Amino acid sequence: xxxxAVEQPKPMAKIPAKQTVLVTVICFVAWSIAVYDYILFGxxxxxxxxxxxxTQSFALLVSTLASAAxxxxxxxxxxxxxxxxxxxGMMASVGGTAVAGVATAAVQxxxxxxxxxxxxxxxxxxxxVNGTYLNEIxxxxxxxxxxxxxxxxxxxxxxxxxxxxxxxxxxxxxTAHFFGAENWRVAFxxxxxxxxxxxxxxxxxxxxxPQFTTMKKIRDLRKxxxxxxxxxxxxxxxxxxxxxxxxxxxxxxxxRRNTIVLSLAWTLNWFGIATFSVLGTSVLESxxxxxxxxxxxxxxxxxxxxxxxxLTHGFLGDKFGRKNVVVVGxxxxxxxxxxxxxxxxxxxxxxxxYMVGLFFLLGPYAAIMYFQAECYxxxxxxxxxxxxxxxxxxxxxxxxxxxxxxVAAAFExxxxxxxxxxxxxxxxxxxxxxxxxxxxxxxxxxxxxxxxRPTDEVVQAARSNR
Length: 466
Description:
The protein is mainly α. The protein has 2 domains: 13-206, Growth Hormone, Chain: A, CATH 1.20.1250; 245-438, MFS general substrate transporter like domains (Growth Hormone, Chain: A). Helix content is 77%, strand content 0%. The protein is built from 24 helices and no strands. The protein has helices at 17-52, 56-84, 86-104, 110-117, 120-124, 126-140, 144-148, 150-158, 160-179, 184-190, 192-205, 210-223, 227-237, 246-249, 256-278, 280-287, 292-320, 322-342, 347-362, 365-374, 381-390, 392-408, 413-432, 456-464. The longest helix is centred in the first third of the chain and has 36 residues, at 17-52. It is globular, with a radius of gyration of 23 Å. Residues 23-439 form the Major facilitator superfamily (MFS) profile domain. This is Sugar phosphate permease. It comes from Nesterenkonia aurantiaca. It is a multi-pass membrane protein.
């Protein structure tokens, strides 16, 4: 009795150029709104502190515990995206942002604040979903221009961070003007509106990636008792779908090294972000003697320059390799901040170095987010990227504790910022040297090598079933 012939699998669908552009724009808007909610809490924390009668140290403790909750949520969310899909992951992320905003308007104390703000981890995970989603969309796009400049187009999306921060600042100013600064709950309640709009855009306009759709079909064929068809489809598309859970996969074989190295690099680099970005005003005022008004203007100007850093590093990553620009960028940032903290206390000296520091501190995230998505196979891509990014929160917490401990031990703020922020940033660049390059992260003139290629094992399995 002859064996039924295995149906010839169809290749994965291509994404039209217009659809690729639409996807990119929606991802940018979604990330901007996620950042907007995250920054909104930090901006309104002093008002929340006053409302509940907390001391400043207790408010910082609440913020730290919220960061720990965010860390847990991001790690859990990554494997879910690898199981439920990229499109649903984006909807869950934006939906989580909406829930966090409304729930924050109803909090009654420290415990509920920590629990509710933990859900903002879903919003912060948006950048990981974006990296995974766009990596797969760009791999299948019909636009040769986007294929040649994948990192640059992703950097446009990642630049939603400063846009979201500016939106949060403007929204707080408007709500304070119309409802009073003490009515901070109104600001969180109204924040649901942009989240609902973005959720609708994703629901009606975005489709699932061809890669995830194919992986789902492979899993369904295996469950239906059709392993030959599943292996043939796997070989034809180059998509491996392992039975191991994604969280275990990212620590096995070729993935282990980059999982460990990049997680450590994120942790150390967030020493610098916690010091020079989150506490930038304190660094300028307490560390460099800049007056409050000048410090605020310097923060705004430096962050605008930092936004250009995203676009620059995204562009350079396509030309010279994403790992390379991350390493060089963070090393330069560490040196710039160190010179700034060791130099004289005058704005003419401080401002240029602060701008250079933020440019090379923040900009490389446009490259590293796309690089870490390229590091993993499609079936564990979201898990790996989310796991690595989650280590921003331990970095913020540990860096903050060390900075506080040094100041409490009678070190000058400038010295503490130098040790934690500048050295942490520089060392994170050194750590990135140990990251293993991936096939897609190479300088190229023409269309890049596709991120997904048939493996020898899968091809052999398909041949054996013919």
